[in-house]
Amino acid sequence: MHTPITELLGIQYPIVQGGMMWVGRAELAAAVSNAGGLGILTALTQPTPTALADEIARCRTMTDKPFGVNLTFLPSSNPPPYADYVTAIIDSGVKIVETAGNNPKEFIARFKEAGVTIVHKCTSVRHALSAERNGVDAVSIDGFEAAGHPGEDDVPGLVLIPAAARALRIPILASGGLADGRGMAAALSLGAHGINMGTRFMLTREAPIHDRIKEAIVAGSERDTKVIFKPFRNTARVFRNAISEEIATSERVPGATFADIQPLAAGARGRAALESGDVDGGMLWAGMAIGLMDDLPTCAELIERIVAECRATLGAAARMAA
After folding, report:
1. What is the pLDDT of residues 107-117, one digit of tens each?
2. Interatomic CA distance for residues 92 and 71, integer angstroms
3. Structural contact between residues 280 and 240, judged by C-beta atoms closer than 8 angstroms
4. Residue 180: pLDDT band by 50, 70, 90 thresholds?
5. Which of 27, 141, 213, 228 could form a disulfide with 164 if both were Cys (CB 3.0 to 4.6 A apart)?
6. Smallest Cα–Cα separation from 176: which of 154, 152, 146, 147?
7. Is this structure's pTM higher than 0.70?
8. Planar angle of CA 191, 184, 225, nearest 5 degrees
């Protein structure tokens, strides 16, 4: 396949694995890259910049294909040492970075000076335009269906993708609600140049999380995710489990603050659940596209299937249009 995304990133297929906390490790990133997509390591999964450099080196022992690093800039009174993570990425020779969260403007110049290609995750056209003005090379536009933090506008991909395509000059990845070749065909038809998938790659054999977590999420339907944190304007989409239900109940209490539910939402609790297989042990991030997933393939099987289905779907649509 040849699109502006494959040309920009030097990959075979315009399929990118999104950065996922605790999941974006070398095993998964290398498997995606080896299959012709772009694998992504998640920087803040590693406890220190030195540990990130070690993980980048480990990934290089598993693949000779391009891979990237996700660096998410979080609002925090005690932020991680972002400048040191940036240094670790640059010094390790990584040439593709996925930024997310707060505006990465502070670090764009450093990345560009080092010849790094920047893909910024956005949840609205206005944020994507700001990122374009700040000099990023591409954007991932995340619809309301997506796992993680889909923004506060609640705009689904069917509207958000063509709106972004109409407004932007740089390449676009569609994200949210994507799990198969039909979705990829739709994204390309709506004006995107490739797709970004998180949950679908989390539900593969190479993803470094407990099989009980994978089996529980893949058994879910499109109705088995839950939107939480909306009262705090930090909307998140997660898998429906005991923890997310308790958070949803607690945040509806008059006068509730994020501090009241923070122990339930703690990242360490979610990590422990992913590692132990305790489905109700912590927050589990998942997008609505779990309703389109019913197996746990290898990354190579998944990408091959998506590409074949995308081509068949586009061909069938062209025949109907003719």
Report:
1. 999 999 999 99
2. 14
3. no
4. very high
5. 141
6. 146
7. yes
8. 110
